[in-house]
Amino acid sequence: TEGSCVPALGAPRGARTACTTDGSACGGACGGVDPAACTFPAVETECRAPSCADGVATDVAQCDGAGACPALTTTQCAPYLCTPSALACAGDCVTHDDCDAGTWCDAGVCSTTLADGEACGEPATCTSGSCTDGVCCESDCIGQCEACAEPGSLGACTAITGTPRGGRAACASDDPSCAGACDGTLTGACAYPAGDTACGETRCDSAMLIDVGACNGTGVCADPPAMLCDHGCADGECIVCGTDDDCTDGDLCVAGTCVAPPPPSPEGCGCHVATRNGAHGRGTPLAFLALAVLGVFVRRRQRPRHSA
Fold first, then answer.
1. What is the DSSP secondary-structure string of 230-249?
2. Cis peptide bond prior to 35, omega within 30° of 0
3. Which residue has the higher pLDDT, 291 or 257?
4. At 151, is the pLDDT very low, low, confident or very high (cuts 50, 70, 90)?
């Protein structure tokens, strides 16, 4: 598909920003469908298997949907044993349903659910029932321009500025002048430049001239109607003329542009030469001398002869 702009599959190409990853199975990649953003594994994708060693159970972890596997969490099994066969503590639960309200099955032991702002791997571990951006959150907080793990606001769903966080869709744009960003006010969508913002550049499309466009307020640079150039288009400009007949006021057509003809010489002749004293004329002193000699010779031939 050389020459065609198509959604990529795998890693972003060239100098484009790499997809977020912490090196785990949660890393993002181009999915071959959305050209504006990376695709991340679903939040239920397991990125760390449970394990058991020395009386300590390591909890299973699931991707946070933003390219990372949550921080390691462990459970001390005492007074229970950690059973390698179950990869969990030999405690009082196997699933979350085995635990009372306000608790969750933490590697085989019913533990108190986590408060907003604490690291989490799944919603069931949080008192709020929402695990967003890798922390327990007061709400699901899924808006394009909000996040729950901002410094100073952990656990609170907050309107953000700049680029969308985590696995949320990027602010789509096909031109830098029309690029959007989170403005700290809108939470559900990016803010974009006003509709009268100039974008793109003047260019040629065959014999058509396309002028500078304007942003449409959704991140797209909209072209104005194309103009047909009578004599073709080149380097972002219509070619003015094809022959001298296309020019007015006696101008000449030079390389597709009408230009004034060169000015005439002072005496109206393009072949004049300079005399020795700097004045312009049609001859030189040597020429005048030759004519004078010729005149004297003719007069002498014409004198009558005297008789003897």
1. TT-EETTEE---SSGGG-ST
2. no
3. 257
4. very high
Question: Reduced to 3 states, what is the DSSP secondary structure of residue 57?
Answer: strand
Residue corresponding to tokens 């099955």: 105
Using CB atoms within 10 A of its CB, is residue 117 exposed (0-12), middle (13-18) or buried (19+)?
A: middle
In the predicted model, what is the mean pLDDT of residues 95-123? 89
| Pair of tokens at residue 66 | 């933003």
| Residue type present at position 152 | G
**pLDDT per residue as tens digits for the range 220-250:** 999 889 999 888 888 888 888 888 888 877 7
**How confident is the model over 285-302, as a mean pLDDT?**
46
Contact 163, 170 (CB under 8 A): yes
Q: How far is residue 62's CA from residue 26's CA, in Å, rounded to a whole number?
A: 8
pLDDT digits (tens, 9 = 90+) for 166-207: 888 889 888 889 999 999 999 999 999 988 899 988 999 888
Q: Render 99-145 in DSSP notation, one character per residue.
A: S-TTEEEETTEEEEPBPTTSB-SSGGGBTTS-EETTEE-SS----TT
Please state the pTM of the whole predicted model. Answer: 0.52
In 133-267, DSSP assigns E strands to 135-136, 146-147, 158-159, 161-162, 182-183, 198-199, 203-205, 208-210, 213-215, 221-222, 227-228, 233-234, 237-238, 252-254, 257-259
- Rg from Cα positions in the chain: 43
Is 68 within 8 Å of 22 (Cβ atoms)?
A: yes
Query: For 153, what's the count of Cα atoms within 13 Å in the CB-facing half-sphere?
Result: 14
What six digits make up the tokens of 16?
Answer: 């484009």
Q: Provide the residue type at 248 as one letter.
A: T
Please provide the average confidence, as pLDDT, over all residues in the chain: 83
Residues 6+ apart with CB under 8 A from 17: none
How high is the pLDDT of residue 231? 80
| Dihedral of the alpha carbons of 180, 181, 187, 193, in degrees to the nearest 10 | -40
